């Protein structure tokens, strides 16, 4: 069984989990030519998969949109992960 809770959920007046403030840091970087080619290939494959799933027939259990399975094993050109 899985219980889902929001950050605002309280138990006995206290938060279920005490999380620190979220801090987001954005850094703009330039891809090398092989990295750019790899990124564009992944982006194109993802777009194709989403379009295919959008065209798929909808039944009692419609296809769920998840990130492409290839994302789980992304490898950068040259063998680095």
Give short descriptive properties of this protein:
81 residues, mainly alpha, 5% strand, two-stranded antiparallel ribbon, flat
Protein described:
Helix content is 28%, strand content 5%. By secondary structure, the protein is mainly alpha-helical. A two-stranded antiparallel sheet has the order 1-2. The longest helix has 23 residues, at 33-55.
Outline:
The protein is mainly alpha-helical. The chain has one helix spanning 33-55; strands at residues 10-11, 14-15.
SSE layout:
Layout: E1 10-11, E2 14-15, H1 33-55
Antiparallel strand pairs: 1-2
Helix/strand/pairing category: mainly alpha
Tell me the β content.
under 5%
Number of strands: 2
Gyration radius (Cα, Å) is 20 Å
**Share of helical residues:** 25-40%
Q: Can you write the helix and strand succession as a string?
A: EEH
* Mean of pLDDT: 78
Number of helices: 1
Side by side, the strands of the main sheet go 1-2
